[in-house]
Amino acid sequence: MTTVRFQPTGKTCELPAGAELLDAARAAGVEIETPCGGRGACGQCAVRIVAGRVDAANLAALSATAIAAGYAPACQARLTAEAVTVEVPAPLDLSAEVAADPAADAAGRALLPDGEPPSPLVRAVHLRVPPPQPEDGLADLDRLTRALQAELGPGEIVCPLPALRTVAGALRACDGEATVAVAVEETPRRIVAVEAGSPAPGPFGVAVDVGTTTIAVQLIDLRRAAALATVSDYNAQIACGADVISRINYAQRADRLEELRGRALETINRLIARAAAGRGLAPEAIRAAAVSGNTTMTHLLLGLPPEHIRLAPYTPTVMAPGGPLDAAAVGLAIHPLAPVRLSPAVGSYVGGDITAGLLCTDLARGGADLSLFLDIGTNGELVLGDRHFLMGCACSAGPAFEGGGIGCGMRAAPGAIERVEVDPAAGGARVWTIGSGRPKGICGSGMISLLAGLFRTGWLDPAGKLARGRPSPAIRVDNRSASYVLAVADETAAGRELVISETDIENTIRAKAAIYSAFSLMLRQVDLTFGALTKFYIAGGFGRYLDFDDARTIGLLPELPRERFVYLGNASLAGSALALVSGDARRRQLALARRLTYLDLSIVPGYMEEYTAALFLPHTDRERFPRVS
Questions:
Q1: Bridge partners of residue 234, in order along the sequence
Q2: Alpha-carbon separation of residue 543 from 336, 377, 401, 448 (angstroms)
Q3: Is residue 180 part of a domain?
Q4: H or E stretch including 452?
């Protein structure tokens, strides 16, 4: 066995020679970020070998200077028989609070339109069960089942063993008065919990959005169909990959697949406990859950191997689990028999988060007008349609819109620059941050604002190159490359300057080109133009800080009247909440999933032409953006 010591924490572990250094870090409880999923492509898991020796391969992501200084990528280094001491950079900081969405966090907010009665996944039924009679030959469960059938209608009812163990005591504690939680939509209907006496407040449920970057949980009163609390935090899987492809790569080993599952569940269960504690509830009082996520996140949550999602012919294990799932099987720390409903996916890259989000649009209500739905994250998922057709696709936007791939990029959290104003004469920047504090970095909406401002004022050309012919203290030119000083050191939270390189600008332009070209290609498939769109829905946390004029200026969004754009917020969470409390919403979601035709952009002729044409500000075809100057 080889002893590995990690500095500066002093933690140690022992593993056999040949084991990955990254596995040693995980075994010692040392967090090392692997944005590329352990492929050795990003170099961000680099650590310095202080003493001893490792066998390091695939050093292409590191500079010659870093290699000479003793750095090696932890995911590509293997232990030898020689003890080793490793210096680890500061771990990924996930402690920053996720910026709250005021619309989603409105406690007491009704989830259903006026006049629509709740029809939740679990119903609390108040019963008076007749006492046992020696001459009728009926067991306690027989009498309970008959009383339930009298209330719910005929049909088989099953009682799992954990619930059965409570029946006798519950029926005798209050002379047969009991409240029974029943999963009414399962076939057969299933008893979740039996409690003595009249109904307590509730029952309660949780809606869960399992995002690649952020996980959100909403606590819901099922009887009133009202939101009680909304909490969110970064998905702990981030340390194992910045995007879904990286996490699929990381999950190729069974132990790492289980690690990713555990990280997601740790985040979800911690948020559930926080939301419940805020209302004075025990997590076991939560009797149902509706969960939405993209196809990869759903597979990782269930512990299903995701590798076939990225391999032709791109076939997931499951689109929507056919049988009922309970919380104990999934791993949710709520009542163990609580039913868990997963939103149905449509394809490998159009998942349950999209079918949940569509519930928040007119497309789910049979609207006749042509609408486009966009959810932007590390992937961009799009749905185009009206009452006659629905077509969906996904494109890889990369992490730029979530602050990734940008030298001083960060997620949309307090301290992130969300808006930039560029001085037309001098070229300097005035910035606004989320939370109004000193800037720590720049998020995706801030990059769009910056590019739009630089382009409008002439400090950035259509190809994404900073102006070299006009002197500005904010622009630095070094041979063939240039960079832009966004904030000097004494203005920032960390005391170091924030600088944007032309590579950062290129990454953002590539991301916007992927999104815009997907719009264009989908409309071309049905021989329509942007002008035919009546509604343009934008979902996801990214859109909360997005300035629509800036987005049109750089060619991310088409030139449409402002009133046609509708910001939905976290539509995946909102749609999950609807599915939790409304049988009509659940039926509509399944119908949407069946109607939606999945378009694989990789095999559609013309996509690369559309993408290449969009790699300029705002576009090579300036007639598409006549108002941008």
A1: 214
A2: 36, 10, 10, 11
A3: yes
A4: helix 444-456
Q: Which strands sit side by side in the sheet containing 177-183, from one edge to the other?
A: 122-128, 177-183, 189-196, 157-158
Structural element, H or E, at residue 572: helix 571-581
- Our count of domains for the chain comes to 3
The tokens of 483 are what? 């960079």
Domain containing 140 — which CATH number? 3.10.20.880
Q: CA 176 to CA 558: how far, in whole Å?
A: 64
Segments of the chain scoring below 50 in pLDDT: none
Q: What is the pLDDT of residues 45-76, one digit of tens each?
A: 889 998 999 998 878 778 788 888 889 999 99
Assess contact for 316 and 345: CB atoms under 8 A: yes
pLDDT for position 92: 55
Last residue of a domain, one of 39, 61, 87: 87
Query: What is the DSSP-derived secondary structure letter of residue 356?
Result: H
Cis-peptide into 313, omega within 30 deg: yes
Q: Could you tell me the end-to-end alpha-carbon distance of the chain, in angstroms, rounded to an integer?
A: 66
Query: Could you say which of 44, 66, 87 is where a domain stops?
Result: 87
Total Cβ atoms within 10 A of residue 373: 25
pLDDT of residue 89: 80
C-alpha torsion angle, residues 296, 300, 302, 303 (rounded to 10): 130
